[in-house]
């Protein structure tokens, strides 16, 4: 475990390349089941591996409600630059898939592959905002923050700054041109990110080496043993 600038928490394994970087989701962190599974899988392979916490997440400093997509992407990019070298495979879960695409814009030459697990690029504008009832939108505009019920635990603070910054960080409204293979793993029983969103990402990608794997009974987390096996097989195929 370490901290960048005394602020951002990270943990890594030394090993061979290409390295693997895990980018967690919205309100998730580097202690989640997929992050730990990938750590152990990469350790068994002898593969370099980095996991991290954005500001306001996990063990990093800051308040969650002060964060935005742009801030969390900048956090991840700073850790990527400071702690990795050579080609890397980005693995982004949910919001981490959006963060991965934002890193890819700036470090395309460093990428050996990108895996999205129920990736949620542009979710603030294309999924979250349209799902809010009118009174919630009015409260968000008026008060600057609302608390949304969450099936995963405590209510989730959603800020006007998050929504506004999300529009500026949009990646799906223009072609996405990456120099590496892209793999998307998506559950069709996902209540948070509709499976058709994965097809929207596929449609935006320019390159031909991009595939979506749909898991008919898969939920948003895709953390069951069979889901984790699929993730390992997908990663191993990119490394090979």
Automatic annotation (TrEMBL):
<dbReference type="InterPro" id="IPR029058">
    <property type="entry name" value="AB_hydrolase_fold"/>
</dbReference>
<feature type="domain" description="AB hydrolase-1">
    <location>
        <begin position="20"/>
        <end position="227"/>
    </location>
</feature>
<protein>
    <recommendedName>
        <fullName>Palmitoyl-protein thioesterase ABHD10, mitochondrial</fullName>
        <ecNumber>3.1.1.93</ecNumber>
        <ecNumber>3.1.2.22</ecNumber>
    </recommendedName>
</protein>
<dbReference type="GO" id="GO:0008474">
    <property type="term" value="F:palmitoyl-(protein) hydrolase activity"/>
</dbReference>
<dbReference type="InterPro" id="IPR052382">
    <property type="entry name" value="ABHD10_acyl-thioesterase"/>
</dbReference>
<comment type="function">
    <text>Acts as an acyl-protein thioesterase that hydrolyzes fatty acids from acylated residues in proteins. Regulates the mitochondrial S-depalmitoylation of the nucleophilic active site residue of peroxiredoxin-5/PRDX5, a key antioxidant protein, therefore modulating mitochondrial antioxidant ability. Also catalyzes the deglucuronidation of mycophenolic acid acyl-glucuronide, an active metabolite of the immunosuppressant drug mycophenolate.</text>
</comment>
<dbReference type="Pfam" id="PF12697">
    <property type="entry name" value="Abhydrolase_6"/>
</dbReference>
<dbReference type="GO" id="GO:0102390">
    <property type="term" value="F:mycophenolic acid acyl-glucuronide esterase activity"/>
</dbReference>
<keyword id="KW-0378">Hydrolase</keyword>
<keyword id="KW-0809">Transit peptide</keyword>
<dbReference type="InterPro" id="IPR000073">
    <property type="entry name" value="AB_hydrolase_1"/>
</dbReference>
